[in-house]
Amino acid sequence: MARPPSPLLSVEAIVDAALVLVDETGDFSFPKVARRIGVSQSALYNRIDNREHIIELMRGRLFSDQVIPPLEGLPWDEALRVLVRAYRDGFAEHPRLVPLLVSQTVQDLGVVGLYENIAITLERAGLEQAHIGPAIATIDYLALGAALELTAPAVVWSPPAGEFPALHRATALSESVEQRAEAAFAFGLDVLVAGVRVKASHNFF
Amino acid sequence: MARPPSPLLSVEAIVDAALVLVDETGDFSFPKVARRIGVSQSALYNRIDNREHIIELMRGRLFSDQVIPPLEGLPWDEALRVLVRAYRDGFAEHPRLVPLLVSQTVQDLGVVGLYENIAITLERAGLEQAHIGPAIATIDYLALGAALELTAPAVVWSPPAGEFPALHRATALSESVEQRAEAAFAFGLDVLVAGVRVKASHNFF
DNA sequence: ACCTGAACACCGTTCAAGT
DNA sequence: ACCTGAACACCGTTCAAGT
C-alpha cells in the first residue's frame, strides 16, 4: 500500500488519538499516535507541521464545542462568573493537557473569542482600560491553576505536623482532589469578583 | 580514569549546570548536563535518582537563598504582599524553569516554610480555617502564572483589530514583557488582598 | 496526493567493567 | 565509592521511494 484510494488519515483522527493518550498517560508521542490510528509515524507529517502544532490543535478542541449561555440579562459579576467558569471547565475536561499548554502561546481563535467576552464584561464592570489586560491575565492564571490542581496527587504539601502548625491546620480538612480543586477555584473566583468590584469603584472618586 | 581520588561530581554541580541550561534554552538533558561538567552521562546517576529529582532540586534552589524580611511589625495585608512577592520573585529568577515545575508535586521543604508563613498571615487576616487552603492555592496560581508570563513572547493574543474590539482596546497599551508581567501580578495581588479582606469580614457578621 | 521504510540526531536509564 | 562505555528502548523530523 502506498497511496490509498481514500485517505487513511485526518487531522481530526490525529487530535483524537493524541487527546486520548494525554488523558490516559499525561503525554503523547508520534509513534504512539501513529500506532493507535494504524498508520506509519511519518504519515502524520502529511496533515500536521510538528509536535507544537498538534498541541495547539488540542487546545482548540477544548473550547470548540463549548456553549456559552447568553449574558445579556446578567449583571457584570454574574456574567464574569459564567465566563471564567466556562474557561476553567474547558481546561478541566482534559486537565493533563494543561502542562503541555503552559509553555506555548495561544494561537487558537476560539479561545480569543472567550477573551473578548471577558474583556467586554470587565468594561461593563467599570474597570479602567489599563486594568483590563492585567485582569484577563489574572483570570488566566486562576483558570489554568485550578485545572492544574486536578492533575495533582491527593496530598500536596503533607506538612510535618509539629513543624508547620498553621499549614497543618489548613490541610487537615482534606478532601478529594476534585473537591479541593473546586474549593480553590470557587475561592479564587470570589476573590476575583470582590477585588474587581473594589478596583472598579476607585474610578468613581 | 575510573575512580578519581577526589570526586569529579557533586549534586551542586549538576543543579548548577541544569539551571544554566534551562535559563538559556528552556530545557535540559542528561547528555548536555554531563558534557557541561565534563563527565560521562551515566555518572550523573551516582548523585541523583532521575530527571524528576533534578527538577525538584532546582525548585529548592529557587527559594534556598531567599531572605524574607521580618514580618512582626506589619499589618496582615502588608505581610501578605511581602510573602506573595517573595514567592513570585523566586520563580521569576528562573522563569523558564516554571513550565518544568508545574507537572510535578512540591517536595522541597524550603518552599513549605514559605507556605507556613502565608498560612499564618491568612489566619491573622481573620480568614476562616476552611478558606486558608483555597487561598494558598489561589496564591500559588497567581505566583506561578505571573512567572510564566515572563516566558511568553511580546504579543500574546494579537487580536484581529476589527473582530475583537474590547480585546484590542485592552492590549493597545502594549509594553515590554516585564512591564506586562509586573502589571498583571500587581493587579492580581491587589485583587487578592481586597478579596481576602472582604472574605474575612464575613466572619464578623 | 498520500503513504511506507529507512535514516538521523537526539533522549533517559541500566549495567557490566574498571580502579 | 566513583567513574566509563556500551546497550536498550524510546523520541521528533526528514526524505527517497512507491503508487
Concise description?
The first copy, chain A, has 205 residues and is mainly α. Chain A is built from 9 helices and no strands. Helix content of chain A is 63%, strand content 0%.
What does this structure look like?
2 copies of one chain form a homodimer. Chain A is 63% helix and 0% strand. The N and C termini of chain A lie far apart (75 Å). Chain A is flat. The first copy, chain A, has 205 residues and is mostly helical. Chain A has 9 helices and no strands. Chain A has helices at residues 11-25, 30-37, 51-64, 76-92, 98-101, 109-125, 129-149, 165-172, 177-201. The model of chain A has no long low-confidence stretch (mean pLDDT 90). Chain A binds a DNA duplex (19 and 19 nucleotides) through residues 1-4, 7-9, 29-31, 39-43, 45-46, 50-51.
Which descriptors apply to this entry?
DNA-binding, mainly alpha, 9 helices, homodimer, 205 residues
Largest sheet of chain A: none
Query: Which band does the percent of strand residues of chain A land in?
Result: under 5%
Largest interface: A-B, 63 and 62 residues
- C-alpha end-to-end distance of chain A: 75 Å
How many beta-strand elements of chain A?
0
